[in-house]
Amino acid sequence: MYRVSWALIRDGAGDVDTPPSPLLDAALASRRSDRTAREPPPGFDPVRYGRMGVLDQFSLEGHVAVVTGGGRGIGRGIALAFAEAGADVAVAARRTHEVEAVAEEVRARGRSAFALGMDVLDWPANDRLAEATVAELGKLTIWVNNAGGNLDRTLRPLVETSEEVWDTLVDLNLKTAWWGAKAATERMSEGGNIINISSTAAWGAAPTTGPYAATKSAMINLTKTLAMELAAQKIRVNCIAPGLVPTEMLFETMKVDEAAVESMGAQLPAGRAGRPEDIGAAAVYFCSPAAAWVTGQTLAVSGGPTGTREM
Amino acid sequence: MSILDQFRLDGQVAVVTGSGRGIGEGIAVGLAEAGAAVVVAARRTNEIEAVAEKVRAAGGQALARTTDFLEVDQIEALADVAVAEFGKLTIWVNNVGGAQDRTARTILGTPEKAWDNQIDLNLKSVWAGAKAANRAMGEEGGVIVNISSAAATKPSPMNGPYAAAKFGVNSLTMTLAAELAPRVRVVGVSPGGIPTEVLMEYSGLSEQELRERGGANVPLARMGEPEDIAAAVVYLSSPAASWVTGTTLSVTGGS
Q1: What is the CATH number of the domain that holds B124?
Q2: Is residue A249 predicted with pLDDT exceeding 90?
Q3: In terms of CA atoms, which chain B residue is nearest residue A296?
Q4: Is A53 on the interface with B (CB under 8 A)?
Q5: Element containing residue B144 per DSSP (H, E)
Q6: B236 is in which domain, residue-wise?
Q7: Residues B156-182: pLDDT tens digits?
Q8: Number of domains chain B is built from
Q9: What contacts A172, CB < 8 A, 6 or more positions away?
Q10: Within-domain flag for B209
């Protein structure tokens, strides 16, 4: 019989006989520290089941989340899902009256909220958002890079895209996520979660929305690298790739109305278009203790298979 | 309704294959904690009865059913038993798999019998399980969850047939999702290294040795627990993931 290779134990990840990492002692000491222990149910093996029940693991109690682009659409859906899961929420977007309305909806769910009218393309404003969140809500443990889209809501082939439009779209959809991650991690002293919002447009050709799709592909890669670089700080980084979700951005960019999107949704394998709550639920899962061992991943929430995830 | 209620599985009936221990046991207990009645199925009767007892002790409903997943007839019968006992079937977790003789070999050093056995146990069992589940779910539909492996998408020296079968499982997840939508959702969970008894037997290492070495190169600095996989299965099989199908989620600690 062959002596088992060390690579096999780690599921084939390359080198053999890796020496223990310096992180090891801390890891063993805090093996379950990311899950609050509770009394095990009667009859349960306390070593394996001495932890919170599975449903409690989806709670975000004690968390403070920032959602950029939180004034409407998917961002609003994520903000409200977080509030229902027990988190306090800072809502940021350009339109002050919209973020204030969402903050009010968060408060109606019994959580604290903070609204900031700001433009994510004003880079220092992102740092002020992080600072203000800590000042207003006590800490910062979740940051959702949701702001993005087609700023001027105009469809163009790649070669007919002006430099100014290219730069703006790449800034809005990619540089924002990098800047947001920096602003967030500086204030996540006890660890936390970053969620990037990509798109199923990342995985295929996207005629007339090329810069957007390219940035959303890049978001998947950014997620993987950030996850590796921030793991030691107990910050997990995951990504959600929504498919067809009827939002005002989609209506304005694609020049369609809600009825048209619903009939497009009926053609999807799942038989319906997405809802902001679908994306909100995925964000709750990723940020909660239920996903304590999940980082660097992109989940398609799209009502159907989108092909291989390897890229 | 709070978003947290969408993660509940009250009133659902689940079958978990290969649930006498390890990841399958964790999934069975997790689904029960979320509110589902669970049929615990594996070859070893004493093990599945012990898991069923744990589920009942926690206030859940459980049935143990001895099943050999190399026998398609037994897989079909398992689906029927779930419906007969609990009135319906809404969740089917294809978790069974591994290497029956627990022997590490190069891919070309694998005897034909061992090759066939690994492909049958890890790939054919998923196809047969999906067939049985789809039939038993009927008009109401449900969710099929396929347990893959991080080995599927990496070079896997000394574990080749298993890795090939698991990549096949990822493909089945996508195609089944397309073919069974919208009535049945089909999703996958791909675990990284978890110190299960199977891995201990396979590697000849103790749980402690596995944990010490296995967490070293994982970005989140520990090996996984069956509970990590169970929580992912609960999310993906719940109404919270009602717009997720055809995709496989890696639960690997970042590695």
Answers
A1: 3.40.50.720
A2: no
A3: B254
A4: yes
A5: strand B142-147
A6: 5-192+228-241
A7: 888 899 999 999 999 999 999 999 999
A8: 1
A9: A120, A121, A147, A148, A149, A151
A10: no
